[in-house]
Amino acid sequence: MSMVLFASVVRVRDGLPLSASTDYEQDKGVQESKKYLKSLSKKLSQFPDRCTLKTGQYNINFTSSLGVGYMMVCTENYPNVLAFCFLDELQREFIVSYDTKRINSAVRPYSFIEFEDNFIQKTKQRYNSPRSLSTKMNLADMQTEIKLRPPYQLSAADVGTVNGFSHPSSSIYKGIAPNQMLEPVTLAGIVSCLLSLLCGGLNLIRGVHAIESILQNEDEDFNYVVAFFLGSTACLYQCYLFAYCTVWRNIKSFLAFALICLCNMYLYELRNMWQILFHVTVGAFTTLQIRLRQPQGKAPDYNV
Question: Which residues make beta-bridge pairs with 178?
Fold first, then answer.
């Protein structure tokens, strides 16, 4: 029989349990899965916002948003779309019920245990009888979303130590989830990309002209060529960072901006102050747009 067996809400930064369903299940496999869930809850910040871990005959699914993780144990044949719809409902209700300040200031475990009686238990019962679910619209939306951005598949090695046994954690997730999508492009972002491409093109043209000058006059400084091409590369790389998710994306954008500044400082004799100011300003503007366009998490829907 496919069903939801256990659910909990935890704080992402330290894995503090905030609320959980009442534990009536004594099956050894379920208890083992809950030990994995407890270990995972302390590492949620290292994983994508939607993951699945298979533990024998049971699955652990979880999502995280706004510093709170929503976790569950279900049978292995429980439909994925129902599992994440269940977690999505927990997320929406918890966000509406409790403010961030109270969540962050919680010290004792299960500070929001009333959420179990008020919502978790009732929702678990509904999802254990799928025919009684009142709407199919959310299921269809979730099914589409899972196809576009499937849950990251964890392995036992990602969990680390369970029951005193250490598992190798070399495969533990530390970057961006596969198929992770960025937030929608804004007009300012498009303008910054176009300006960066323009700066990159100008640097490239000046670099080619600098090579021609060197061929005609051996006294010319080849370092100018290097500075032009490095500046062009940094501009184009900022466009790439704006368009795609990469590991340490924000840090890379700052390094690219720093390289743009250094190149323009070196080219001080070949450019007037307005040209240098233009290149540096475009670099700073693009860096800001990269910082503002973050990976897209599961947006809570307050109106459902």
Answer: none
Those residues with Cβ within 8 angstroms of residue 230's Cβ, 6 or more apart along the chain or in another chain: 259, 263
Query: Looking at the structure, do residues 232 and 126 belong to the same domain, yes or no?
Result: no
| pTM greater than 0.70 (yes/no) | no
CA distances from 137 to 79, 142, 150 (A): 16, 9, 19
In a domain, 71, yes or no: yes
Are both 134 and 59 inside the same structural domain?
Answer: yes
132 with 261, same domain: the answer is no
Dihedrals φ, ψ of 128, to 5°?
-85, -5
* Between 27 and 115, residue with greater pLDDT: 115
Residue 250 lies in a domain: yes
Q: In sequence order, what are the residues at sequence separation of 6 or more whose Cβ sits closer than 8 angstroms to the Cβ of residue 70?
A: 7, 8, 9, 62, 63, 64, 87, 90, 91, 94
d(CA 201, CA 211): 15
- Range of the structural domain that residue 226 is part of: 187-292
Q: CB under 8 Å to 32, separation ≥6 — which residues?
A: 55, 56
138 and 238 in a single domain? The answer is: no
CATH number, domain with residue 86: 3.30.450.50
Does 211 lie in the same domain as 272?
A: yes
pLDDT, tens digit, for every residue of 73-108?
Answer: 999 999 888 999 999 999 999 999 999 899 999 999
CA distances from 2 to 72, 121, 146, 219 (A): 13, 17, 20, 79
pLDDT of 3 above 70: yes
